[in-house]
Each structure stands twice: as C-alpha cells, then as structure tokens.
Amino acid sequence: MTFALILKAASFAAEKHKQQWRKDLDGSPYINHPLAVAAFLTEVGGVSDAHVICAALLHDTIEDTQTTVDELISQFGDAIARMVLEVSDDPAWPKAERKALQLAKTRTLSHEAHLIKLADKWCNVRDIMHAAPVCWNDAQQAEYVHWAAQVVDVARPANAAMALAFDALYAQFKLNKVRGS
Fold first, then answer.
1. pLDDT, tens digit, for every residue of 122-160?
2. Count helices and strands in the chain by DSSP H and E runs
3. Which CATH topology does 2-180 take?
4. Taking the domains of the chain in order of start, what are their residue ranges?
5. Residue of 181, 139, 136 lying closest to 25 (CA atoms)
6. Hey, which bits of the chain come out as E strands?
7. For this structure, is 112 an active site residue?
8. What distance, in Å, lies between the first and last C-alpha atoms of the chain?
9. Which of 6, 7, 23, 37 gives 20 to 30 Å between its CA and that of 137?
10. Which residues pair with 29 in a beta bridge?
11. Cα–Cα distance between 85 and 69 in angstroms, integer?
C-alpha cells in the first residue's frame, strides 16, 4: 500500500502539473520539481514516511493548480491534505507579502511540513544556481536565496542532514556571487 500511495501521488501531481513548465532556459516540465523535493527528502533526509513523501509530491498542487483541499482529502486523506495545505501559499497575495507570510507561517508548521519546506527550499536554490528562471536577474536570484535561507533557519531543527545540505548549497551560492559567476 505504501508504494501504491506514493505512485498515486506522483501520478496525481503529474496530471495536475502537466501543462506547467519551469521558467528555466529549457522550460523543464514542472513535475520535475515535486519529484526532486520527494527525492531529496528520501535520499538526503532519510525520510521514509509515505505520507510526507506524498505531501512533498503534492506540495504545489493547491497553490499552483486548480486542485482543492477537498479533492486531496478524498484522494489521499486528511493527514496528507493537511501537510499540503500547511506548505501552500495563497497566490492571491502580492509576492512580497506572500514571502513575509510564509516566513511567519513557517514558525508554526508541523515537523512534517518543516521537512517539506527544507527539501523545497534546497531544490529551489539548487535550481536557481544551475537553471535559474530566465526572467530573473542576479539581484532577484540573490533575494530569493537569502529569503530561502531565513525559512530554512526556522525549519532546520526538523532534519540536520537536510539543513546541512542547504547550508553547503547556500555557501556555494555566496561564493559564486563573490567570484562573479
């Protein structure tokens, strides 16, 4: 049942994100992001809880697609839907306010949601470093990365290995900026 549930979540997320593309030069399929978040949770974080992995796969469905909370509850149950809702932003808010709210909200999240936040921020920063959105300049990239580090600082107690991996990535980002690359 565990593998079936994870595959169901991956399939659901792929269907919901099928018309979405990342803003990188290649226009990568959006589904690569939730898959990377789930992979980071398992490979670096050692997370084996199927509900957390499913929520990671689904973490952007409420925020970025027409998926409803009721739909997630009916497909995956209350626990997974709750985690997805915890890590979802309200896209109706302006970007700056959304970031401030996310940082404040991170302080109140469950342990499971903190795990997803750590993985999501690591994946986003890695993507900025290797395949940044083409419409983002250096200042926008740096702003996001420094903000992500603040979110990680709040969530870091949830998983030392993932926090350390983020720290290494963040240090590499800063070093690259100093070197001008």
1. 999 999 999 999 999 999 999 999 999 999 999 999 999
2. 10, 0
3. Hypothetical protein af1432 (1.10.3210)
4. 2-180
5. 136
6. none
7. no
8. 46
9. 37
10. 21
11. 7
Structure tokens at 62: 């409420």
Cα dihedral 130→158→89→78 (10° resolution): 120
Token pair of 23 as six digits: 């803003």
Nearest to 155 by CA among 125, 110, 123: 110
Question: Could you tell me the two tokens for 99?
Answer: 């970031």
CA distance 176 to 60: 29
What is d(CA 84, CA 69) in angstroms, rounded to the nearest whole number? Answer: 9
Is the model's pLDDT at 181 over the cut of 60? Answer: no
Active-site choice (15, 43, 60, 64): 64
DSSP helix/strand/coil, 29: strand
Catalytic residue selected from 24, 63, 71, 153: 63
Question: For residue 21, which phi and psi values (nearest 5 degrees)?
Answer: -135, 150
63 is catalytic: yes
The pair of three-digit structure tokens given for residue 27, joined into one six-digit string: 């226009």
Q: What is the pTM of this model?
A: 0.95
Residue 177's pLDDT band (cuts 50, 70, 90): confident
- The answer to whether the CB of 70 falls within 8 A of the CB of 97 is no
| Positive or negative: CA dihedral 32, 35, 36, 37 | positive
